[in-house]
Amino acid sequence: MSSFNSAQEAGGIAVGINGTISGFNADVEARLAHVLTDVGRWVEREAGALMGHIKMAVTSDKSTVTMNLTDLREGVLFHGRVRPCRHAEFSFMAAVLDVEEDRLRHTVLHALDDSGVNMVLEGGVTPHHHHHDHDCGCGHDHHHEHGHDCGCGHDHSHEHDHHHEHSHSCGCGHKH
């Protein structure tokens, strides 16, 4: 009897990520479907074909929407519905063949980050807080904050308020 399961024997790997979403609505649902498609396209480029399953479930209260991708030509298939809500939980999973697990996880994290969805991953981090000790070759700069609200409550914008003070008074009575 083999010590490997059939997915391992086929060269398959699985990556799962759980978290919460703030402000779930139809736009967020569409952005999440795009995440599945982005990951599927990456798998297809890496492996030559999308062999496997990429799915996501979003749950709020007692309702769930599942998004499934097994064929890029078919697109993402939806089952169920979650009405707009302040907070929802999600589970993302990709079980595919012929790609490296670390690279798949990295691709998933970037797709979630690039979606612009306000989310926090299990463990209390946002997708863009995954770290690298080396240049991963993905083309993203991991040493800066992205331009969207990460949900931490801090202002990451780099706007500067410039005040020009004059050393003399112009005589109008207003402060310049």
Kindly list the characteristics that best describe this protein.
3 helices; six-stranded antiparallel sheet; 28% strand; globular; alpha+beta; 176 residues
| Percent strand | 25-35%
Separation, N- and C-terminal Cα atoms: 83 Å
Strand tally, please?
6
Query: How many helices in DSSP terms?
Result: 3
Order of helices and strands: HEHEEEEHE
Specify Rg, calculated over alpha carbons: 22 Å
Oligomer type: single chain
Strand order of the largest sheet: 4-3-2-5-1-6
Overall pLDDT confidence: 78
Low-confidence stretches: 130-170
Task: Summarize the amount of helix as a percent range.
Answer: 10-25%
Task: Using the alpha-carbon principal axes, give the shape.
Answer: globular
Biggest β-sheet strands, sense, barrel: 6 strands, antiparallel
Briefly note the structural class of the backbone: alpha+beta
Structural features, described:
The chain is α+β, with helices and mostly antiparallel strands. The protein is 23% helix and 28% strand. The chain has 3 helices and 6 strands. A 6-stranded antiparallel sheet has the order 4-3-2-5-1-6. α2 runs antiparallel to α3. The chain is globular and about 40 Å long. The termini are far apart.
What topology does this entry show?
Blueprint: H1 6-9, E1 12-24, H2 26-47, E2 52-60, E3 63-69, E4 77-80, E5 85-97, H3 101-114, E6 119-121
Antiparallel strand pairs: 1-5, 1-6, 2-3, 2-5, 3-4
Helix pairs in contact: 2-3
